[in-house]
Design goal:
CATH topology of the largest domain: Nucleotidyltransferase, domain 5
Oligomer: single chain
Helix content: 25-40%
Number of strands: 29
Number of helices: 20
Radius of gyration: 29 Å
CATH architecture of the largest domain: 2-Layer Sandwich
Number of domains: 3
CATH class of the largest domain: Alpha Beta
């Protein structure tokens, strides 16, 4: 009976002409927004966000084969794609594919976005098979309808991308796609090959951008018509893209005791670059708005590209956007999020410094081995053929960092005496001015050189001291702690690090110029009557150290046909150990996931120390030091 009804629908649709109706008109007539996926459930209204109309209607525009949308978050791009799916499934059936960055995201999108749309939009409910039925033609990632099928897949799955012919291709968050789907090549190119059998194919690429120089959506946008959503100035009648660069705002900025920044924005106005007049948000929302093409000649190639930022969205307040921007300003990691997801712009990551002088000049005198603010110590060790290089770092609230000591232990790593000398640095307590001290909570040791076996032996013997072997992986996009493997011979963990991400984090933090969250402090060697301790006299943060810290730069290269930013050593002596050590220390911190308030309570003595805090004595005088021991990474 089900098969008979299917053929009846196919014949009925085949004998009736395809209505000449655009995606936006279809949405206005049929689409219903679901409560679990929309802040404004109910009947769809394109006029609620007028910038969506041209984007949607491009999919049915004669001669257009590619639609590119570079945008901020929360401008409704998911619903634009859903409307494209609904219109073609209902009125012009065809094989449709939607690609998400991963298979897991595809499954989530299908459950949270596609299924509610089918359920609440009556014309789609009648078309698609019941999701809960046992029909093998209908699954979470594959939904059959008369005359076509909706296929959901991940950019990391070559099998899903290359398996079927498709006419409508939608790529969501293409900047988050991997460079290659397995070993098959670029995910978008791989899927596009499935469209060659259709003369009327259409591809839609949507994304918030990522980093300048490597953003896929930037490249696609520049190859298209480059249509900006612009506002008419109420005074001079010229059209302009409204951006944060032309915003003026009244705000107050305060810092809490822990140096965190709090910003209150009173009002925001846009100042016209032409006439100089300023207008508030409500005035600009009511003024005329339209797309202005900066590269209209691209239309002859069948490519329309659009740009929409947060200031066009009816769901976002200008004061909230400027508030986010001001609070993130000065912290590159937070700035990137705002530029990408709010302003819809790619972010230029810090990767190059002219020389080491700026860091030499900002060194400061610590009053003791440990300055106030340090709550946790980590260590990193780089293993070379004739030496061990190590750095001990202090960490405080919101990941503020203090360099404590950088040293070199001369000796071949297959010599027990070399490791014994390392123990002297890692086992000792480092003290504050009041005599209270800390020992190193965890140490990461590089095992990627010629002496991996000796590193494993040392870590096996010192696992109770939280000393772990690591191996760096120079692969773009890997998180700083990629995964935990195992050294089978010794039964110890091996932590694999995404060092490219780690280097970017380090350079981002080096660019922070104000003491506080994520700032890097560097010490001066002590002089005069302060020379009561070797740690004060020889901290190791000299010109050679800083040259090694900035020894690498981000450069643009073509890798497997795709432009990427890669780290290259530009130092004349190729000495980059200080940069590696700082990456390892940062990864070490992340492996601990510290509870700063608990550590603060211990050091200040406001709470009794837990069992993980050890005590020692110094010449009969009792002093305590915190050693955060966690046996699991």
């Amino acid at each position: 009976m089900k098969t008979v009804k299917l053929f009846q629908r196919i014949f009925r649709n085949a004998l009736s002409p395809i209505p000449k109706i655009s995606v936006s008109n279809w949405a206005d007539n049929y689409r219903v927004l679901s409560s679990e996926s929309s802040a404004e459930p109910g009947k769809w209204r394109t006029d609620r966000a007028k910038y969506q109309r041209e984007i949607m209607d491009s999919f049915t525009m004669t001669g257009v084969h590619k639609v590119v949308v570079k945008s901020a978050s929360q401008v409704g791009k998911s619903d634009i794609m859903n409307n494209v799916i609904g219109r073609f499934a209902h009125l012009d059936p065809a094989p449709i594919m939607m690609i998400q960055p991963t298979i897991d995201l595809s499954q989530d999108y299908s459950k949270s976005r596609i299924s509610p749309m089918i359920r609440d939009t009556k014309v789609l409910t009648e078309l698609f098979f019941d999701v809960k039925s046992r029909d093998s033609n209908n699954t979470i990632l594959s939904k059959l309808f008369p005359g076509g099928r909706l296929i959901m897949c991940g950019a990391n799955s070559p099998a899903g991308l290359a398996s079927r012919p498709i006419r409508i291709l939608l790529g969501d968050e293409v900047d988050r796609f991997p460079a290659s789907a397995g070993t098959e090549g670029d995910p978008v190119d791989l899927a596009a090959k499935r469209m060659t059998t259709f003369w009327n194919w259409v591809m839609g690429l949507f994304s918030t951008p990522t980093n300048k120089g490597t953003s896929r959506i930037d490249t696609e946008y520049m190859a298209g018509t480059q249509e900006e959503w612009q506002h008419e100035c109420p005074n001079c009648k010229e059209y302009h893209l409204v951006t944060h660069r032309d915003m003026e705002y009244k705000h107050t900025e305060n810092r809490h005791d822990d140096e965190t920044k709090f910003v209150f924005v009173e009002c925001v106005q846009w100042r016209c670059p032409d006439c100089g007049m300023a207008f508030g948000e409500q005035v600009m929302r009511k003024t005329n708005q339209k797309y202005v093409a900066l590269n209209p000649s691209a239309l002859k190639n069948g490519v329309r590209s659009f740009f929409v930022n947060c200031f066009a969205s009816p769901w976002l307040k200008w004061t909230d956007m400027i508030h986010e921007y001001l609070e993130a300003k000065g912290d590159p990691e937070r700035e990137k999020v705002v530029f990408n997801t709010r302003f819809g712009e790619s972010y230029e990551r810090k990767g190059n410094f002219d020389d080491e002088a700026v860091f030499l000049n900002r060194r400061e005198q610590y009053p003791a081995a440990l300055p106030d603010g340090v709550l946790l110590l980590t260590a990193a060790v780089d293993v070379q053929d004739n030496r061990l290089e190590y750095e001990i770092c202090g960490w405080g609230e919101e990941e503020e960092n203090w360099g404590i000591k950088k040293g070199i232990i001369l000796g071949v790593p297959d010599n027990a005496a070399t490791w014994a000398e390392l123990d002297q640095q890692l086992d000792r307590p480092y003290r504050f001015t009041n005599g209270t001290g800390l020992v190193v909570a965890r140490t990461f040791i590089d095992s990627g050189g010629h002496y991996a076996k000796h590193v494993y032996q040392y870590c096996y013997a010192n696992m109770h001291k939280n000393r772990f072997a690591i191996k760096g992986m120079s692969v773009s996009g890997l998180p700083i702690i990629h995964k935990i493997s195992k050294v089978a011979e010794y039964g110890i963990p091996l932590i694999l690090l995404g060092v490219d991400s780690g280097k970017q984090y380090v350079f981002d933090r080096l660019s922070i110029e104000t003491s506080g969250p994520k700032y890097f402090h560097f010490p001066l060697d002590a002089d005069g009557d302060q020379l009561q301790s070797d740690i004060l006299a020889m901290r190791g943060y000299d010109q050679i150290y800083f040259k090694g810290l900035i020894a690498e730069q981000l450069v643009s290269r073509i890798v497997k046909g795709r432009r990427v930013m890669v780290w290259e050593n530009v130092s004349k002596d190729k000495r980059n150990e200080p940069l590696d050590l700082r990456v390892y220390n940062l990864a070490c911190l992340y492996s601990i996931n510290p509870d700063w308030q608990a550590y603060k309570n211990i050091i200040l003595g406001t709470k009794s120390a837990p069992k993980t805090v050890e005590k020692t004595s110094n010449q009969g005088k009792k002093s305590s030091y915190g050693c955060i021991k966690r046996t699991s990474i």
